[in-house]
Predict the 3D structure of the following.
Amino acid sequence: MILPIYAYGQPVLKKKGIEITPDYKNLKEIIENMWETMYNAKGIGLAAPQVGKAIRLFLVDTQQMQEEENDILGIKQVFINAQIIEERGTEASYEEGCLSIPDIRGDVDRLNTIVIKYMDENFVEHKKTFDGMAARVIQHEYDHIEGKLFTEKLPPLRKRLIKRKLENIKKGKIRSDYRMRFVK
């Protein structure tokens, strides 16, 4: 089932997600719905807060970018209760966007390598190193479960330039190709 994506201004987007256990109600269904929602919105990542759940769950599919980007192999992965252990490497700027903040993009600086500990959808624990675009997308989605948005990482001038657009998103004064839930 395609879920509405929570728009900028929704309080759940600013909450730090709580850890979950394998018996979390309807978890398999939530994950399936998140994949369907993400693909419907033409996204490459989606975090549970973006569908109204303040839990530590996100998913990433950078495989669909493999032909566009000269990156190492893409990933398609569910991350539960993730903890970034280390960020290292070279800082690089790249234009990011977000399904919760349609039509706004901006250059975000991030380190190009991360080490992350997480559970997969079967609650098997992993500790992996990711580089390049995979690392960037994971960091973006990880920020969501920490209650942070990419717009907070933009330079002050860019933040001022998008302030009115953000207010319009909060009020629902935008058009989107996918279902959204706005602040009431």
